[in-house]
Design goal:
The protein has 188 residues and is an alpha+beta fold. The chain is built from four helices and eight strands; from the N terminus they run E-E-H-E-E-H-E-E-E-H-H-E.
Length: 188
């Protein structure tokens, strides 16, 4: 697998698997369930296997709502994945506390961005946000993520997703030094 060549990441995920994120707040273990969201589970599995989640910022963390991540810190990698869209999955689980889902900008727009729900966000279910799994260990570390930047620009004082795509972690580390990161991820 080549992280800069999405075409090399086409493995089918196991029916269930666990992933460990090492984060700046501590370890987080996710259990991914392919029955909930097959396309999403496959994409996540391939991203982990390719090493995508290395030095990845939780760039949009909103108290009581969710923690979003998944724009790569290297603009070349981010650019390679930016238009690698996967089809939507039927919503087979609810966006409740600890569940992880892909972010979307509308129907069939999922790429690499995901979020972990802090609370009951089941209102997202009807909007097509299909959970792929859930935190099974370390939710306290997700709860502890830095939240003071809040919503991203231009609606809040957090980072601009456009600038993250263009300048990567250099932009984030200079302008948003308190952000937390996924340091690494592995299938366990």
């Amino acid at each position: 697998m080549d992280i800069k060549n999405p075409e090399t990441t086409d493995l089918k995920a196991p029916d269930k698997f666990r992933t460990k994120f090492k984060t700046t707040k501590g370890d987080v273990t996710l259990e991914i369930n392919r029955d909930w969201s097959a396309n999403g589970a496959d994409r996540f599995y391939n991203l982990v296997k390719a090493g995508f989640f290395t030095d990845i910022a939780f760039f949009r963390v909103i108290e009581g709502f969710m923690a979003q991540f998944g724009i790569h810190g290297d603009p070349d990698v981010s650019g390679a994945w930016e238009n690698q869209i996967i089809k939507d999955d039927e919503v087979n689980a609810s966006n409740t506390r600890g569940r992880i889902s892909f972010a979307t900008a509308g129907p069939d727009t999922r790429t690499t961005q995901l979020f972990i729900n802090f609370g009951d966000n089941s209102f997202l279910d009807d909007q097509g946000f299909s959970p792929i799994g859930e935190v099974v260990e370390g939710m306290e570390n997700i709860d502890a993520l830095y939240k003071e930047y809040g919503e991203g620009a231009p609606h809040g004082k957090g980072p601009s997703q456009g600038y993250i795509h263009r300048a990567g972690n250099a932009y984030l580390k200079e302008n948003f030094p308190e952000l937390d990161y996924i340091l690494s991820a592995e299938i366990i």
